[in-house]
Backbone:
């Protein structure tokens, strides 16, 4: 490691400053650095972990959703996704959300990784998946607050949407780009 | 739109519940949905926007960083990145952070898009870039809290790190995957 001190920090105190569990918790932490310095107000935020998936139908189209997202403040294109229920396995959550939001099931799933949203503040972990061969088996019924329109894109249409700025949410860009890299 | 009501929500009230500006602000919003329903406690979080970049050196290697990230809780591989200063242009911030963190300048920059981190809660916007032809012109001096080790990866090594779970932060996975898609 060439003399670099890459050791973890230590958490010396952690005060829960805002508690709206399970939707949101915010802590103020006092942390100790490897060089002996101390930081008194490092903020840690926790919102629910989620699963998101790039899903190809049996005829090779990607399933996207067009709906209003309040974090973006506009109607935008996203991928199917949803929060993990308490103790839920991420892949099971992905399958459940795909069925609820799009009425599809897929026989072929693989992980594209689990990622922390905030390198400093944590926020949550997103579990990203790629699925292939999806077929519609039910009517969508997500129970989400947003009305949603399903759209089906070719690989080229998805690439174009990425380049044109139609994908506005980071996890959607990550999932789509990772899926397109895997399916060259 | 097939009868779907994709209209934006309206914010009917917004209470600042936690104020640690400029590092963190948390609002509780009362929002009105297009179908007339009202949600009394929709949480909006704001932390600083940032720039992140996948940078190829003049000899075709990607510049990565290995350091402890407290949001992840471990030493991990990331890309150069940093918060935008007040009013700062994202591309200028990317160039400044690249120089500070790695001592490199690059002649060729393009945007990989700007993305909201939280589709529900907002959090912040990440501005992602691809740069090529970088050369070292100075000694790194980031002023960051973390000791950092620079590492230089071939395209194949970066793909392997992505697949092996060595990339643990969502924005790094997004930036790397988008950059690798662009440079097939």
Residues:
């Amino acid at each position: 490691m060439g003399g670099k001190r890459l050791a973890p920090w230590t958490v010396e105190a952690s005060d829960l400053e805002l508690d709206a569990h399970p939707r949101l918790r915010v802590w103020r932490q006092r942390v100790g650095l490897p060089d002996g310095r101390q930081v008194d107000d490092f903020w840690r935020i926790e919102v629910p972990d989620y699963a998101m998936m790039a899903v190809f139908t049996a005829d090779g189209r990607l399933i996207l959703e067009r709906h209003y997202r309040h974090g973006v403040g506009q109607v935008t294109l996203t991928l199917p996704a949803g929060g993990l229920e308490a103790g839920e396995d991420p892949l099971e959550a992905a399958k459940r959300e795909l069925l609820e939001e799009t009425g599809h099931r897929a026989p072929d799933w693989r992980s594209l990784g689990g990622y922390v949203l905030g390198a400093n503040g944590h926020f949550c972990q997103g579990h990203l998946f790629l699925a292939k061969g999806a077929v519609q088996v039910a009517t969508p019924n997500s129970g989400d607050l947003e009305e949603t329109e399903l759209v089906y894109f070719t690989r080229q249409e998805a690439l174009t949407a990425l380049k044109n700025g139609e994908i506005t949410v980071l996890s959607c860009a990550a999932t789509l780009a990772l899926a397109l890299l895997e399916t060259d």
